[in-house]
Amino acid sequence: MKIPDEMLNILYGNYFGYVCTSDRFDTPHLTPVFFVYDGQSQKIFFITNEKSKKVKNILENPNVSITIDIRDPVNPFNNEGVMAQGTAFITEKGPIYFLPEETLQLYRDIYMEFKGKYQAVIENKPMGENDVIVQINIEKMVYWKGPHFKSVKIGKEGKVTMVKSI
Question: Rounded to whole angstroms, how far apart are CA atoms 44 and 80?
Fold first, then answer.
């Protein structure tokens, strides 16, 4: 089985998600991130500062979730999103040169779009400086549109299994 198209549309068509980490005491910490989804490996990547609370939490507790959603301000039954759960780890500090060419190109494209949109915020910050890449190995994803849900599990071999559709 493959990931349903409605999930892929959200994962590939959006740039911002909300990552939830928690520390060793299970205190949650929710923050927006700029992410890239790699469908071949079933991984989500984001870049963050090595001194961030997210990094500290991931080092203490690698279980994370990320939510990417689209909201309809007129009709909440049109709201839809994907929540992915999995295990995160911190890659080496520094530039992102070691990623596969396809993923590296995605990072460049998204970074340039982000820079164009938020130039005043990141104008003097070169890509990679004091940053680490966080990789989330996806284990489960849930999709919703209004009150309807679909859930899939992803096995170690990348095998996708539909868990339920409500």
Answer: 19
Which of helix, strand or coil describes residue 105? Answer: helix
Q: Sign (positive/negative) of CA torsion 38, 12, 1, 155? A: positive
Name the β-bridge partners of 69.
81
Take residue 104 and report the two structure tokens written for it. 């590296």
The pLDDT of residue 166 is 58
Q: How far is CA 94 from CA 21, 23, 33, 130, 138, in A?
A: 22, 24, 18, 7, 24
In this structure, what are the phi and psi dihedrals at residue 73, rounded to the nearest 5 degrees? -70, -15
**Coil, helix or strand at residue 84:** strand
Name the DSSP class of 24. T
For residue 129, what are its two tokens? 């400086």
Could you tell me the residue ranges of all domains in the chain?
5-165
pLDDT along the chain (166 residues), means of 10: 89 91 95 87 86 95 97 92 95 57 63 60 56 88 90 80 66
Which CATH code fits 5-165?
Answer: 2.30.110.10
Burial grade of 116 (CB within 10 A; 0-12, 13-18, 19 or more): exposed
How many Å apart are CA 27 and CA 47, to the nearest integer?
22
